[in-house]
Structures are given as C-alpha cells and as structure tokens.
Amino acid sequence: MTVERVDVLINGGGIGGIALAYILGHFGHRVMLVEQSARECPQNGADLLKPSGIKILRRFGLLDDILREGGLMRDKVRVFHDSELLSTVDYSVASDLGFFILIPCEKLRRLLMKKVEQMSSAQILFETRISEYKKDAAGNVIEVRLSDGRTVLPTVVVGADGANSFVRSQILGIEVEQERISYAAPMSFCSVPLTPSVRECNRLYVHSTHGLAYFYPLDGHTRLVISFPAEEMSALLADKSRGALVARLRRFVTGESADALDQIVESTEFRQIPIKRMNIKTYYKNNVALMGDAIHNINPITGQGMNLAIEDAAELARCLDVSLRGEKALADALLVYQETRHPINEAVVSYGHAMTMSFPDKVAFARNFNVTLQTSGRDPEQLERVAHAALPAVSAA
Ligand SMILES: Cc1cc2nc3c(=O)[nH]c(=O)nc-3n(C[C@H](O)[C@H](O)[C@H](O)COP(=O)(O)OP(=O)(O)OC[C@H]3O[C@@H](n4cnc5c(N)ncnc54)[C@H](O)[C@@H]3O)c2cc1C
After folding, report:
1. φ, ψ of residue 99 in degrees (nearest 5)
2. Fewer Cβ within 10 Å of end Cβ, the chain: N or C?
C-alpha cells in the first residue's frame, strides 16, 4: 500500500481546483489533486474571463498561453432593457486592465491542467475519489484513503469539488439547503454560426417579463445564452421548429442582432446552465478549506463564476503559502482567506441577484447595473454598498 505525504490535497479538478494546484505548485508546495471524472471528460462552465481573473493568470505568466489557445480579447458590451440601449460598457475606460477575454472554461482548465502535469511538485489523479478519512481529536483530517487504494497524509485538505461538494457536506458536515436558493428563471445556451453583429461586440438584452438573451463569440461560433421563467422556457424549447423562441426573442432583441437571430433554426440544440444563489459563512474548519462553487453559487448574468473560483484559488494559495512556510499558524492564515474572500463573493453574488430580480423595472435595473462590478472591479467601498443593500426576494421572479 502506498502512503504519500502532501502539503495540500485538493478534491475536485474544475477550474478552481486546477488553478489552486497550479499556483501552489508554482510556489513549490507538494500538491495532490483528486478528480472523480476521467481526464478526457469535459467540465462545462463559464466562458468569460474578466479583469479580476485575467490579472491573476497574467501574474503567473499565463496570458500569452491563453491568447495562443484562442482566447479572444474584447472591450465592449452593449446592454439593452426592453429594446432600449441602457449602456455600452467599455472595458478600455471602465477597467484598469482595459479588456476581457472570451474562452471556454474547459479550454482554460485543460491549459492549466497541462501546466500542472509538467510540475514536479504536483500530481493529478483522475477517476479517483476520497473513500475514507481519519480526523484527530481536534478535528483535523490527518489521513485520507483514496479509491485507488493509496493513503495520503495531508497537511491541508481543500474542497474544490463544486456545488455538491463532498468535502463540505461529508467531511465538514455543512448543510447548505437553507442557504442555497434556486432562481425561478433558468438559463440555457446554444451555439450558432458566427455573424457580423456578434463579431463586432457582445450584446446583452433583458426584458421586463424576465427574458434574457446574451450574444457573444466563442471558438468561432456565436454563443447565445437565454433565460425565461421555467414554464415559459419549457414551452419555448418544446417547439423544435424554434419559431416560438425566435418570435419571443424578437419582442426584446433589437435589429442590431437580427443576423444572429436568423441563425437559430430547427436543429439548434439548447443545454441548461445551473443557476442558484449561495454564499456560505464558513469557508474552513481546522485544516480543511473550501473554495469556488463549493462555497458560493452566482447568477451567470454577472459572468463571474469562473473568475470568483480563480480569485478564491489565488487568495487561498497565498494564505496557505504563508502558513506552509511557517510564517503564520494555519488557523490564522485561513481566517485571512475567509475574511478577504467572503465580502467580495457576497457583493458579487448579491449584485447578480439584484440585477436579475430587477428585470421588470427598468429604473431599478439601471440603478442596480454597476459598471465597476460588472467589469469585476473590486473597489471595497462599492463592494460593501452592494453587499449591504436590501435585496429583492427571490419569490418575485
Ligand atoms: C454549463 C455551465 C455554464 C456556466 N455558465 C456560466 C456563466 O455564463 N457565467 C458564470 O458566471 N458562471 C457560469 N457557470 C458556473 C461556473 O462555470 C462555475 O462557477 C465555476 O466553473 C466553478 O468552478 P469550481 O472549480 O469551483 O467548480 P466546478 O467547475 O463545479 O468543479 C468541481 C470539480 O469537482 C469534481 N468533483 C465533484 N465531486 C467530486 C468528488 N466527490 N471527488 C472528486 N472530484 C469531485 C467535479 O467533477 C468537477 O471537476 C456555468 C456552469 C456550467 C456547468
């Protein structure tokens, strides 16, 4: 039986876990990442890399690789409410970085995965899970048995295992059902051929009857994300001719995107995006920490699910590095991680919520639309204001 000592055992190889493995490996720490899926199995996710995430990846020398992989730099998003232009968000003015990048989450994850696999201090085990674990009297996880039979002795365990996190629910015993709220209007997405309007800039349309359509280019296609109240969405997508959907979209999508709408045809397939709202209070206990979708779920309208996971990874890696180098006790380092990340995650989750719930009221939507937060600015004053604003109830959807 193999017994391995590691500094950090990461459960879950989504974008967050892989980013954490990369940064910790970069710092020279011994990292083992355990992913339940096969190496080839794609993990779907967000497509938007905003300045907050880009700056982290650039700091670790990855920006050129991202662009070489086909990441597309953009700077403008036109935002409409009930067919009226509300704002043209210009990242070259609104963000100090000056641009955002469109790249499928899976492409970025694969790029990082290859880099991690080249590191001598890090390893990834696919099709592997935690099958047993032992805690000491204080509650620290001191031994982990994996499904491939090996035993791991970790200094720290991290749950980067997504919305239904095993580490959160089984190892830490944290229940989230009360805190996790489902939205009444689900989202779905499709790919259609690329047209000039989409090549020109991103366009986000919202409608006061809880309709949404977002057009942007991805990997040489147009990605269209739509949202409607659940019953209406089912009825629209049940019409396989797509005629009902296109007619519904024409009620609020302007002529600026007519060429893209024309591409939605009978064979256009839609897939659903999970949308929930959550930000739990406890990000760690003893030597076990959580990150990414395991601690927060965000409405995709902000385009920041992938960014928040990368931001968590960078801050957690920074705090663990300080502790693993013996400069701070682990408890103090993880407290800094929680106190730094919780308010930011709370503000961005609340922002997405407030925006989504105000679709019916143009004035409220315009008031809630915040260019700094939309472009992933992290100005503490604005974050605090948004996090503490009274939030509309979900039942209004
Ligand atoms: C189809 C889709 C579209 C999305 N679109 C958007 C969007 O437009 N905008 C936006 O902001 N966000 C979007 N999101 C959400 C965004 O992608 C996530 O917020 C982000 O990927 C979270 O990353 P993560 O690494 O924390 O979790 P995940 O990506 O969920 O990764 C968790 C990983 O853990 C693994 N795992 C789970 N359980 C175990 C276990 N017991 N043992 C071992 N491994 C385990 C999983 O296989 C997975 O690889 C979308 C998500 C999906 C699925």
Report:
1. -160, 165
2. N
